Amino acid sequence: MSTLLTGITTSGTPHLGNYVGAIKPSIAKSKDFKKNFLFLADYHSLIKNQDPELTFKSSIEIAAAWIACGIDFKKVIFYRQSSIPQILELNWILTSVTPKGILNRAHAYKAAVDLNDKTDPDSGINAGLFNYPILMAADILLFDANFVPVGSDQKQHIEMTRDIAGRFNNSYGETFDLPEPIISTDTPLLPGLDGRKMSKSYKNFIELFSSEKNLQKSINQIVTDSLMPGDSKNTKDSILFEYFSAFLTQDKLKEVEELFKEGAGWGELKKMLFEIINEELIPLREKYEELVSKPDTIEEILLAGEKQAIIQAENKIKEVREKVGIKPLHG
Ligand code: TRP
User: Fold this and answer.
1) Same domain flag for 239 and 272
2) C-alpha span between 277 and 190 (Å, rounded)
């Protein structure tokens, strides 16, 4: 029986890139698996920011976004990482079998070091960032996940999880399955307004559930060239066309391609794109607004998921503790 698992760090407001790249495909994929675990990586969030208000607000917004977009709770166990203490127990046990050297080689840590002066390479880097891959391995291995959908930036973390699981198995006997990443190639990555990766830090993102007005405004800011209405436009290298691709079926996309060729104006095309995206978001936005205004409903949904997650977590941690020699002291 195959198990799918993925986590979302609660360090921001969900944007359209998260919707196209993670929320929508994960919800669709969950239908193909017997068991699905989806969780808010709120402990991972603490590594990225020390702003309690941001972490709290982001937990509400990200949970609300996923629920509004239609998680099927018959198939998906939805929970907070912080509500499953066994993750942290496993985190420690895995820390003890993880060679420090593999953490030195993690891209995220190395990138932070590279930004620093050579005389103080670890300046401003917390140990959480260094140990980040172990916590992620604990998230995955505790639930015996076989497949982990992630962005391509997370691929190395899954390789490290496999490495850590293998080392544990070698020392203590077969305990963990080695998970495979699922890196979506069929969903094109949605670029930011300026064509770079959509990201909070570049301020080039479109909030997923802002007002219609804001959505329209953001779409108007998508960078285009200076071709006039009547001029034939190339779809290749067009940021706007990539947005169309993310939201339309192949057939409909062909029609848009024609419009580009025939010389539709950028303003007209942007209006069209707004209508397509907005129509898809209207029902979801309504649900989202309702949930965010009543976080108690979200809390209840999470508590129900956590009740189920804890059962599996307790069983697994018991097995792991016994394997390492931590168990009741009788004969
Ligand atoms: N590190 C992931 C990200 O930033 C989030 C995450 C935490 C995760 N734990 C995980 C993803 C376990 C998959 C599995 O995107």
Assistant:
1) yes
2) 13
Same domain, 42 and 82: yes
Test site for ligand 1: of 107, 139, 142, most ligand atoms within 8 A of the Cβ: 139
pTM of the entire structure? 0.92
Write out pLDDT tens, residues 121-144. Answer: 999 999 999 999 999 999 999 999
Total number of domains in the chain: 2
Q: Are 21 and 183 in contact (CB under 8 A)?
A: no
- If one counts every other C-beta atom within 10 angstroms of the C-beta of residue 327, the result is 10
Pocket of ligand 1 contains residue 3 by CB under 6 Å:
no
Q: Which two tokens stand for residue 167?
A: 């080392």
Q: Does residue 194 form part of some domain?
A: no
Is 197 a domain residue?
Answer: no
Report which of residues 174 and 152 the model is more confident about. Answer: 174
Same domain, 112 and 33: yes
Q: Which residue range(s) make up the domain with 165?
A: 3-189+295-324
- Amino acid identity of residue 27, one-letter, is I
**CA 191–ligand 1 middle distance (angstroms):** 21
What are the tens digits of pLDDT across the range 18-64? Answer: 999 889 988 999 999 999 999 999 999 999 999 999 999 999 999 99
Q: For residue range 221-248, list pLDDT tens digits in order.
A: 999 999 999 999 999 999 999 999 999 9
Give the residue carrying structure tokens 């603490």. Answer: 46
Same domain flag for 33 and 173: yes
CATH code for the domain of 243: 1.10.240.10
Does the Cβ of 6 fall within 6 Å of ligand 1?
Answer: yes
The Cα–Cα gap between 133 and 156 comes to 9
Residue 151 resides in a domain: yes
Mean pLDDT to the nearest integer, 71-85: 97
Is residue 149 in contact with ligand 1, taking CB distance under 6 Å? no
Is there an atom of ligand 1 within 6 Å of 41 CB?
yes
Total number of residues shown for the chain: 331
